[in-house]
């Protein structure tokens, strides 16, 4: 299914009202929920782990898309699978054995995602394509929400779309996606758009319709 899906990053949610925040974005029509897991080692920031994913799972029916910015990744895959992740995405740059890690996600019967930092050529994914259900092109350097979109990644999305051919692989774009950059990535071939600040800005659990309008704008 190549229709455009909007995946709000809960990194930009109000953590003090977490349950209500994720219920609000689901009610306002998001397609997936994107969970950014950071370890203070692979990326210079810390966020959350499997217990939070498990708590989210109880609140929503939507696809839970877990983006692991952690190294090593292998020791944690089972815990994220058990916590109810539907898609588990790991970084090509996070270890020497990405092929093994993607296979491990498949063995856990989850959708396997491969994320590529802006400095990694998409051609590096070629030997791994048959193990991928999704490839995430980072359009910022991972670690923080609210960063500026890296325009040179548009050409990489286009090249990846050509490499993928007719394989059933989603192209996800993560970082700086807003109403001005969304059409560019969609036109280049992306079909899953992650957005943190562009979904949560100006809204709140008391004003959830703002989230709906932000999702519609994307
Ligand atoms: C960055 C994360 C993103 C980020 C997106 O490391 O992977 O998911 O939260 O945030 P925005 O949409 O604000 O750039
Ligand atoms: Zn992310």
From TrEMBL:
<feature type="binding site">
    <location>
        <position position="34"/>
    </location>
    <ligand>
        <name>a divalent metal cation</name>
    </ligand>
</feature>
<feature type="binding site">
    <location>
        <begin position="174"/>
        <end position="176"/>
    </location>
    <ligand>
        <name>substrate</name>
    </ligand>
</feature>
<keyword id="KW-0479">Metal-binding</keyword>
<dbReference type="InterPro" id="IPR011060">
    <property type="entry name" value="RibuloseP-bd_barrel"/>
</dbReference>
<comment type="function">
    <text>Catalyzes the reversible epimerization of D-ribulose 5-phosphate to D-xylulose 5-phosphate.</text>
</comment>
<feature type="active site" description="Proton acceptor">
    <location>
        <position position="36"/>
    </location>
</feature>
<feature type="binding site">
    <location>
        <begin position="143"/>
        <end position="146"/>
    </location>
    <ligand>
        <name>substrate</name>
    </ligand>
</feature>
<dbReference type="InterPro" id="IPR013785">
    <property type="entry name" value="Aldolase_TIM"/>
</dbReference>
<feature type="active site" description="Proton donor">
    <location>
        <position position="174"/>
    </location>
</feature>
<dbReference type="InterPro" id="IPR026019">
    <property type="entry name" value="Ribul_P_3_epim"/>
</dbReference>
<feature type="binding site">
    <location>
        <position position="67"/>
    </location>
    <ligand>
        <name>a divalent metal cation</name>
    </ligand>
</feature>
<dbReference type="InterPro" id="IPR000056">
    <property type="entry name" value="Ribul_P_3_epim-like"/>
</dbReference>
<keyword id="KW-0119">Carbohydrate metabolism</keyword>
<feature type="binding site">
    <location>
        <position position="36"/>
    </location>
    <ligand>
        <name>a divalent metal cation</name>
    </ligand>
</feature>
<feature type="binding site">
    <location>
        <position position="174"/>
    </location>
    <ligand>
        <name>a divalent metal cation</name>
    </ligand>
</feature>
<comment type="similarity">
    <text>Belongs to the ribulose-phosphate 3-epimerase family.</text>
</comment>
<protein>
    <recommendedName>
        <fullName>Ribulose-phosphate 3-epimerase</fullName>
        <ecNumber>5.1.3.1</ecNumber>
    </recommendedName>
</protein>
<feature type="binding site">
    <location>
        <begin position="196"/>
        <end position="197"/>
    </location>
    <ligand>
        <name>substrate</name>
    </ligand>
</feature>
<comment type="pathway">
    <text>Carbohydrate degradation.</text>
</comment>
<feature type="binding site">
    <location>
        <position position="9"/>
    </location>
    <ligand>
        <name>substrate</name>
    </ligand>
</feature>
<feature type="binding site">
    <location>
        <position position="67"/>
    </location>
    <ligand>
        <name>substrate</name>
    </ligand>
</feature>
<dbReference type="GO" id="GO:0004750">
    <property type="term" value="F:D-ribulose-phosphate 3-epimerase activity"/>
</dbReference>
<keyword id="KW-0413">Isomerase</keyword>
<dbReference type="Pfam" id="PF00834">
    <property type="entry name" value="Ribul_P_3_epim"/>
</dbReference>
